[in-house]
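<instruction>
Derive structure tokens from the sequence

<record> Sequence and structure tokens follow
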Amino acid sequence: MCGLVGAAGCTRMLERVPEALRRLRHRGPDALREAEFTSPGAPVRMGFARLSIRDPSPAADQPLSRGDVTLLFNGEIYNADPLRDELRSAGRSFLTTGDAEVVAEAVRSWGFHRAVDRLDGMFAIAAYDHTDGSLYLARDRFGVKPLYYHHGRDGGFAFASDVASLTYLKPALRSDIDTDLLTRKILLDPFIGFQPDRTSFAGVRSLPPGSLLTWRQGRVTQDGYYDLPAAAHTAGPAPDLRALFQRTVREHLVSDAPVAFALSGGFDSSLITTLAAHHHDDITAFTVDLGSDGIDYGDDGHYARLLADGITGLHGRHIVLRELKPWSLDRIDRCVTALGGPLYDERVRLWDEMYRTVAAHGIRVFLNGQGADEFWYGYYPKIWNWFTNLYQEPHEEASYQQYFAGRWSSSPLHGILRPEHESRLAALATDVYRSVDEGDPGGESGRKLTLFLVRTCLGAILEFEDALSMRHSVEVRVPFVDRAMAEAALAVPTADHIGDGSTGKAHLKKAFADLLPDGVIRRQKAPLPKPRHDGGPLRDLYERHLPDLADDDLVQTLYQQQELQRLLEPGEAGTFYGNPGEAMLQVLSTWRFNEVNRV
């Protein structure tokens, strides 16, 4: 896992690449390297921050040049070995055992578009073609690895692995905050309001998952190379699901750096850890167990200990995170910088603390179960008051209007958000309904909703995970977010996924029922816990800085100044959604986001 940065066609941005690269060091502390070229159309400068996972030798450092191609590659290619063998048989030779060289030789041999289409894995790629001065970008099919870019009116172009490094290349971008997107996330939910191609800055775009971009002599073109519904439709006979996932987990274990696992005690992480224990004699697993300090719906600690005490054959270390350091302004600033926007979910603190702990134990590669809920109907049961309750409602616009109106009416920010923003809710609810409905024309309503969750909820989670894990130089791998697994999931009829409707993931659980304790198989879906907000440091921060919040221009644009005090009044606390403390975090982090990005 690494960091990419580069610029083309704009002298001022090219001059700032070295410092932008230094600011990416958290993503790749092992080596910082640059390359600069004079293209037929404009100069190009590229930088790479390396986190050594495969082949730690200096020979595998990047930028990596092979023939007429110079490559930056962030991620992992899980079919690198067969591709290497195929390229060798065609006459290519290799100096490293890393997968970046496989990508470079594939691009050199087959062209950028065909090469990317043959890669299985998570990746963000930038490749420069010395023959015509073209710069190519690509992102993996589901957006596990981020890639942001800016294309100026003057033809200048920049890209980076995080928003902060990109806006450093052109500081003027920070003054154009996309308040439309911020409002959408406040009203709908940060996960449902997520937009795959947008960021908190109007001039900074995210390359959508499954997309390619070409910059040539100041002009940009963009194409999609992957469509999940179409791929699932043409995937052929249903695979042996058990053999497929066993192979997928095995591929995700390949590393020259220490590997560890999330073990929540839920089905997804328990299955991955169990399968991994068949290949690893020494397993390190991490569990979050906040006990009475967490808002949750299950005993993660109990089930995690059940697995860790020997049912999976677990050996080695079981590390339990029981306490979280409180919010401070410095910590909020670091998180809004890493995420490139305000904080909408208190679990940002939990994610950040988890990856700090993982890194402190010498781990560089971390596997978790993200993606299983979205692809395999884990959100189907009507357990908590969340968007996925719509699985069980009629698929019609009225259902969406009723859901969003009901949820917003109980939000602590209801009446605090400015009226002109609140008035958008009905139109946004209709927009979500249409997006769900049009995402898979002719498909089942359950499948439509699943595809929408993959694009939005999963996309947002993957973005959070990457930014917060890489802040601590940890690579996250997600075996459930695999092309073959995704296509297999989408080929299964909704009724088979639902089963008796009691716990979700019926089809997936049936394939692995004998590997895990019955209590884990039948356990109700439990969300990642949130810390409780019964007063404390966050409230103190909010109250102390209320005058600063009221004076901030971005806070004023979004919220009513005279109403901000209401979040400090006694009211309902401790609920998973609609928590006043989480609302305080949103407003506080909006102020801090604006402050750290002032030009």
